[in-house]
């Protein structure tokens, strides 16, 4: 029993037989089929797959941005599909961070204001100092008051990373974080992401088609036509 | 290029939300302006025709010199396609079986009345009916009071001069029964052909020939041009707009309609400007792509110009398709109100402003931002460029302002209107600048928290640029709508005040000095107290500073007042609705001096200290002008050009007294007792005139309400266009906030609050600017006094806050119903 609880505490994300379908005009399309996985606290995991393989949909379901057709997702002890939309929002505000391929910064807001956004939503009293600290950490201490339009793609993604870590999330979801960046900038952004992840002890779940980036994660899953496999685990099993 | 054109086909265009908004704005612009212009023209024609019946024609020519006009004048009018008619008015004694009575005779030709109808009764107890022509030769219609005064019955004969006429009806109301003190005696109406046989009119008799004309405006104007040089001073050409009681109401209604139309133009222009700017912004990527594919700047310019022309055409056709049924509905409404059919007439001249509005809106508002698309660098394909700054938009703004105010000027023809609106707008923008500064200064200190209020304030601050420009548009829209509401209420209040339900509707004239007290007691007993009684002395103004007045005043300036006897009075206190504009009112005990009515003083060039000599009977009275005062001619109370102090120059002159009072319809029988007891006193019943004026006011009010509703709808559309311009950004932000953990309820509350604040601020600004504009307008156009209109000042910001909060909520709905993941992807 004790072992079971300890194991529960160790598990950050548990997915059981997850299936997701969308209704089209004429028929139903199955995007994910019978996905099961477990990710422990502090682990970094990459989900690798080609465009259209269902990886971004999986990420959305894991993060509680959407609800699955079947199966369960348990995030940090909460079964997401049993939560109301507001409860899921609360969960996201306190424990989840996001980094998107297209950065998703609000154009009217400065870098600092963009980073302050999740802190304000979480009701933090003086979010400014924390935002400044994080922007300095990602190397943008001089550009606090610049709007996204005045920043390069790499800089914008750094702001997004600072925003993702602002509310001290326990888990970070990254959707192709270097997908819109050149190799070199991508490299430095992924370095920063990995570093911060290590420093903060955050669990990282990253979706990417970039094998090199995936290789920097502790575990890798492959997804194809909605079916998830873990090559290393399969190899271990074979061994 | 062909490929590029294909890329930008209309069908593809239509799929773009911004294009749909531009087209909707254009359609609304054309529809609103066309409906208002058509309806205003229709209303004006209806009003003029119903007002024309006050003259029984469109125009009257009065000859007060006792001579008929040359026959060729009438032939000329007929050759110009005008209808003509003739009447003769004079006073004479008539004899019936019961005695004799001084009456005022109106002899009319077959054509009378050219406009309106005569109300008659076949017998004292028969129902009233409307007829389209006067009595036949050999017949006479008489005022019902004569039945009793002369002990007559229907069918009896009445002796008018040498002629015996058969009493065939009772004359209840003449269409041109305007209020004239000269018509003191009871009225009879006979046929004009009978006049010579009566033998009453002799050389030197006091008689007035009146000629009636009706036809279209152009022909009437042309005839007047022809006639003008032939008219003598004793001839008076009267149109609906001259001197009649209701004419000011009519002019104000017209001004209001024009103001409404002008505001519709402004609102429509704002909608087009907002939507097309948004469209231009959304087109930058397409333009950059086209340039990359080799299309040159000129080609881009042509492409968009062609598309603009296509939109213009769609706007005009679509707008007219909306306007016509709407106009049809309004004419139905109008004919219901008037209880008579109103023809559905499409005045081509009224459609011109709508077309002009479409073109100007398109080229002054939609074109500038779209023209600048030529300058979008191809580089944009690779890297997004900074968006348009305010500086580039400044010349656009200037062009737009000039264009739209030019349009308003052209449309309303009132420079003061343009100035007032422009002034209000400048004030608005100034206040907006100040508010913007305050917003930045105060809200920057607010830090967001989980609380909706703080998030809303932070939102306002963060989006300050968008917030301020949205606020500018909202405030302007509200200012225009509020201006209209304010002008409408002040117009209606004015009318109500002018004709309160208990406005005097009967005059008593010819009261002998020793009967004054008795008459007063008679009505006091019946619960209908009289207004103040004034003595009245009839006299002519004959000399000015010792020179005969006909020499002293140039021929052009000679006015009717010099040709006829004036009613002179004396009074100790200034009537409440008179106002001294020069000099001083009589001191108690003062016995010298005369007070002159302002308009007459101006026309005769009189000033304080001028000596006026009046001939009263065989006596002459000379007094100096001690004050000049304005008079409310439409107050339905006795009014006088000349007033003397009590114990002044008039005291010893033979005077009769005059007064007015209110008598409700159900007490009208008291008039019979009164006439029996005071047979020499004339009762002038003007209750039907007041009814008519009130009826016109009601019609105009209805029309104004309908047009106001249209304009408010247009204002709402402008607001929707502005809000939907930022729809995409707002939705994206909403989706992101939800992703980052914002609860739905928090999102809804903070967004609604943010919009409510925006609406509230805009409402306050708009209302203040509207008050300023109305204040300026009232000075010039509506002659009212300034006061804060709390009934508008308070609710407008509230309503605008609520409406915008609902708009905000509406914007959010897709964000709330779809998974944030899906929405972020969709909006990417």
UniProtKB/TrEMBL annotation, chain A:
Annotated InterPro entries: AAA+_ATPase, ABC_transporter-like_ATP-bd, ABC_transporter-like_CS, ABC_transpr_LolD-like, MacB-like_ATP-bd, P-loop_NTPase
GO molecular function: ATP binding
UniProt record similarity statement: Belongs to the ABC transporter superfamily.
Domain ABC transporter: 13-239
Highest taxon above the source species: Bacteria
Gene3D superfamilies: P-loop containing nucleotide triphosphate hydrolases
Name under which the protein is recorded: ABC transporter ATP-binding protein
